[in-house]
Amino acid sequence: MTVESILEEIGLTKNEIKIYLALLKIGSTSTGAILKETKAHASKVYDGLERLAVKGLVSHVIISNIKHFKAVNPERLIDFLDDKKKRLQEQEEEMRTYLPQLNALREMGTDDTDAEIFRGWKGMETVFNEGIKEMGKGDLWQVLGAYAGEDRERTNVFIQRVIMKCEQKKMRWKIIYNESARNTFAYEQRSTITQNRFLSQETPATINIYKDVVFIALWIKNPVAFRLRNQKVADSFRLYFEFMWKLAKP
Predict the structure, then answer these.
(1) Cβ atoms of 142 and 243 closer than 8 Å
(2) pLDDT, tens digit, 9 for 90 and up, residues 57-83
(3) Euclidean distance between CA atoms 115 and 215, whole angstroms
(4) Of 74, 98, 123, which closes a domain?
(5) Looking at the structure, do residues 214 and 172 belong to the same domain, yes or no?
(6) Rounded-to-integer distance, Cα 178 and Cα 217, Å
């Protein structure tokens, strides 16, 4: 295996490798010498130098108003690999939190999935009312990413009416709010049928889960809800909700 192939395997492009090896050979120099050594197009050299600088493999100084570039100590390549390992570990942890959502998307293609879109405040009223009709005493409705939306006052009044209907049916709600919603939805957060927690992470939409249904609500000026009816999808989102519930704080 050559040094070029090793550098390519750890994440450098062929263009970056040419420039980096040229700088190791030449030492501190302007772009002219790099162009001559690599025989690469000027735009590729400038792009490669910028990318190598981001990776911490090239530094520069300005001498007489001209940039001179220099390859850093090759020991930095070990640090570069360590950085990649740490980032891969972080990405793995992040990906695990999204697996339920990805699995839910995979299940959406099955024949028993029913998908609908509801628009406007009347549409939002329909999707909530139809859900409440299906629920009985003690049934659980879960919400992830509750927030006030673009029309805070109207959303608050709307949700209060929803909760009052659910109180009459003696349903249960577990709600994870965006932290920004801590001082909103006063009626909902005080209701005896709700359990409430908060996440500092802000979500752009609210995910509602009940029985075999998942619907995603966008609380914009003219609200939109996307409803999916599929047991496997709902179960996947339910697992994701419980994972986030453990991370959320009272």
Answers:
(1) no
(2) 999 888 888 888 998 888 888 888 888
(3) 9
(4) 74
(5) yes
(6) 14
User: In 21-64, where do the E strands start and end?
Assistant: 58-63
Domain count along the chain: 2
What is the rounded distance in angstroms from the CA atom of residue 217 to the CA atom of residue 158? 13
Number of residues assigned to the chain: 250
Q: Which residue has the tokens 């009816």?
A: 229
Same domain, 178 and 99: yes
CB 226 within 8 A of CB 216: yes
**23 within domain boundaries:** yes
Q: State the residue range of the domain holding 200.
A: 89-247
**Which of 74, 97, 113 finishes a domain?**
74
pTM above 0.85, yes or no: no
Do 106 and 50 share a domain, yes or no? no
Using 50, 70 and 90 to split pLDDT, how confident is the model at 110?
low
- Residue range 166-193, pLDDT digits in tens: 999 999 999 999 988 888 888 898 999 9
- Cα–Cα distance measured from residue 37 to residue 66, given in angstroms and rounded to the nearest whole number: 18
